[in-house]
Backbone:
């Protein structure tokens, strides 16, 4: 026996759940910053403002094409309770 006197099998039995919990915790932290949908809110708002006003100044042309934002926000025009983006 080297070191603490705890057999290798016992150490591995405890190490696996600890590593899995650490992996899960890191995943939960990253989901709010690096997931596929973390920036959809601003894109929908930009598309909605473009549809309602016809003003393309909010569109980040160098990042996303305007058509993608406009198509994603098109169903929002069917809702009556959304505010006018000009106000």
Residues:
């Amino acid at each position: 026996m080297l070191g603490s006197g705890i057999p290798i099998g016992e150490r591995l039995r405890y190490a696996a759940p600890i590593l899995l919990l650490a992996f899960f915790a890191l995943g939960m932290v990253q989901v709010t910053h690096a997931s596929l949908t973390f920036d959809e809110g601003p894109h929908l708002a930009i598309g909605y403002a473009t549809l309602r006003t016809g003003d393309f100044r909010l569109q980040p042309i160098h990042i996303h094409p305007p058509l993608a934002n406009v198509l994603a926000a098109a169903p929002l025009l069917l809702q009556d309770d959304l505010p006018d983006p000009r106000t």
The first helix runs from residue 8 to 34. The two ends are 74 Å apart (CA to CA).
